[in-house]
Amino acid sequence: MAWVAVAIAVIVAFAVTLTVTLTDSGADSGTQTRESAQRPQNPFEEARTLGVSQVLADYSAALRDGDAATAATALDQSATEIVRDRTRRSAEGIGSLPISTFEYRLSSTRGPERLVPAELQARLDAQGSSDSWVAPVQLRYAYEGIDSAPVVLEVPMVMARYPDGWKIVADSGPEFGEAAPAGQVWQYEEPAARPVSTPPGDSLVLTNGTSPLTDALAKQLPAATESVTGFWGTRWAQGAGVIVAGSDEEFASITGSSQADADAAAAVTIFSSIDPAGPTALGQRVVFAPQAAELDPNTLAVVLRHELFHVAARTVTAVAAPVWVTEGVAEYVGRRGTYARLEQAAPALAAEIAANGPPADLPADANFAPSNPDAALAYQSAWSVAAFIAETYGDDKLKRFYVALAGADQPSDPALVVTAQNTAAQIVLDVSRDELVNRWRAWLGQQV
Q: Is pLDDT above 70 for 60?
């Protein structure tokens, strides 16, 4: 699976978020492999490539045409029920959505080859298969209006060869005890799309059927997009793909979230990769969980602006950027203009200050874990840092501070973490890190 970053906004008093990175699944040290050197293909490999490419092309065309029966002919007789069900739903759903590109194809990149697990291989042998391959398959797709280039996902498949050609057997991930490919909207029972104009960009709300949440998000998207642009500027798409999950299972499948995160989340942002030519983040989506329908309109607007900020800032945000910066600024953008006093925006932080005084230091990344009972306090502390910088130095300095600090991965050495923060503070705010923390703590004391 391609890089996926997930920012999770919790429904309770504050928009608590978590960043999770998932990488392409490949062979680990305990998996038997056959090395495939970077060299011209021999006749056997060339025949393999041509045969699998043809069946993937025919399978993709049938799905695009809505022809489930023809698509099913590409499946092996022992194909998993998951693959069969996905084939049927995809054939029924793709035509309901504004999809401009859709195809399965072989990746041009070949790494070490994984051997099909013995039990599955024995079954294929018994069926008369003459060859099998854990093929490096990619899914390429694009939605009209929101995808400037096709989204490319790594979806390796087990393929089997017979006298009449190659067949699709299974997703390879589950066969090796790994995650299945991420779910897609066209696999819903009732996939639907609603284009939304967010001038000068375009947005798209994707959903399973219709719901009041779909209507609310479509209504709020133009103003939310304009608000984020007012802070960040125009150097982003000024629009987004928004997905409304119809169940916790759909939400977890699309985002790759754990069940615990799914239970706590109102929304997440995901993306597949960064195209350095733009730079452009490909496959960005804001995914709302079913429980987001319980939010009042004002809170929903805060969550939407928060997530759209992640969309806007994605190309300048490193995967391992400090969480207090990425989530603090996102929450500041989400909550701008919605509060008059600190305790309205950060009740847990206000209570902590009243009881024990301001936090001693900036919150550590570990404090933001959803399993941490004090996660809300960490998020509210991060928001307050951003609010303090904006009030003291202005929004433009806050934005520049974000770029300076979030644009690079946080060092693993704690001493270097402090050095990086100190450098950013000195360059952008003309103060040391220690002075920034002291001024923030004094400001907090004045607010409560």
A: yes
